[in-house]
Amino acid sequence: MKVDDPSVLAELSAAFADYERALMENTAALDRLFWDAPQTVRYGVGENLYGFEAIAAFRRARAGGAPARTLTRTVLTSFGDAFGQASTEYVRTGGVAIGRQSQTWVKFDGAWRIVAAHVSQMADFS
Fold first, then answer.
1. CB-CB contact of 39 with 61 (8 Å)
2. How far apart are CA 37 and CA 50, in angstroms?
3. Contact of 119 with 101, CB cutoff 8 Å
4. Are 69 and 75 in contact (CB under 8 A)?
5. pLDDT band at 27, cuts 50/70/90?
6. How far apart are CA 116 and CA 95, in angstroms?
């Protein structure tokens, strides 16, 4: 298995950038980036979501979308041509919280999808 094949890593990087853009804009594109299956899991700062439907419902109900943030360190790794991991640290705008996010990505029929995600905060300065 090839780790970090440049072309696969470029695809994964583009998918991760799409996610970050959609998250900050609170667009419906977020739904398309998660695997539409009951096995998809997202653990958030204050919620545990099991299945695509629960994740999509959470996004629709979240008024105003995710708080603005700046990514400070991101590590993307691809394994073979259809599996990848994204880990990033971020600071919420205004420096009120430092957090981290991890995502497991799988390519289904040529499209990268998140199958598992975890978001947590390390510090709250408010």
1. no
2. 10
3. yes
4. no
5. confident
6. 27
In this structure, the number of other CB atoms found within 10 A of the CB of residue 68 comes to 10
Top CATH class, 6-124: alpha beta
Residue 126 in this model has a pLDDT that exceeds 60: no
pTM for this entry: 0.92
Query: Buried b / exposed e across 39-49, counting CB within 10 Å, b at 16+?
Result: ebbbebeeeeb
Q: Is the pLDDT of residue 59 over 60?
A: yes
Work out the pLDDT band at 92, boundaries 50, 70, 90.
Answer: confident
What tokens were used for 38? Answer: 């009951």
Element (H, E) at 23: helix 6-25
Task: Name the residue ranges covered by the structural domains of the chain.
Answer: 6-124
Under a CB-based contact definition with an 8 Å cutoff, are residues 87 and 71 in contact? no
Provide the pairing of β-strand 111-124 with 41-43.
Answer: parallel
